[in-house]
Amino acid sequence: MGETVRNRLAGSVPGAVVAGWRVGQWPWLVPVAAFAATAAWVLGALSGQAAGAVRIAFIAIGAVLTSVAVGLPLWQQRRANQARADAVAAAQAARAAMRITLEDALDPFVHVVGALTTAKGADKARLRGAAVQLTVATIAGLAGAERVRVCFFELESGRPRRLRPERFAGRAGAPTVTLTEGEPAGDAALRMISRRAWTFIDDTRREPLPFSWDGSPEYRTVLLGPVATPEEVVGMLTVDALHPGELATVDPTLVRLLADLLAAALRM
Predict the structure, then answer these.
(1) What is the pTM of this model?
(2) Which end of the chain is more exposed for a tag (fewer CB within 10 A), N or C?
(3) Interval 232-256 mean pLDDT
(4) For the chain, what are the domain ranges?
(5) Is the pLDDT at 22 greater than 80, yes or no?
(6) Residue 197: CB partners within 8 Å, gap ≥ 6?
């Protein structure tokens, strides 16, 4: 989706910022209400000792300050209720958008899987390629980050085993490394997918990657894991973005679901 749920929720809360505080939040409200109540009390006491226009001015200002002291908490409560309502509405809109996106993405995938059940020879190879491309393109579209890249590595089961880059979508630049058994990067990748484990690293400078699929990697945040059926591993998916934290809104459960669907399609 072009807009993440987090951005929608942040944009739905109204209020300007004054001296570092957002108007309507408690850090701003409490001292102002307390000051108004105290000042109103002081002016009430002083008005008893004043006369004429000064007394009238003290009483009027005290009344205004009392209104402020009483009205601000009520105003805050109203704004908080409105913010909660806006947040609920934004979350519901995001879920509805996600359902539409998934329906649009999964409909052609279901069509490809259905065709695979009866395809033979060259048609079956073509449809498997289409299933891979649909998977990486769908994940790239759902990631919500700018210049994300999704790559599929096919597992070649010869000796030595290899994870060979097959398809990618999103940011330009195909992965350049074939991960080969017997090499440190290849062994690390094969161990990960053989354990059916998924790895998420929010910033590769704080938590180094166990292996890389580019000669000079530019990405700073990654999600990667196996494409596997319960019986067999058939490959690996990687999702990477250029800046730290850009994949924080990606739903790992959704990525794993699409990876499992792809694995089932490739085994047909």
Answers:
(1) 0.64
(2) C
(3) 90
(4) 5-91, 119-266
(5) no
(6) 225, 226
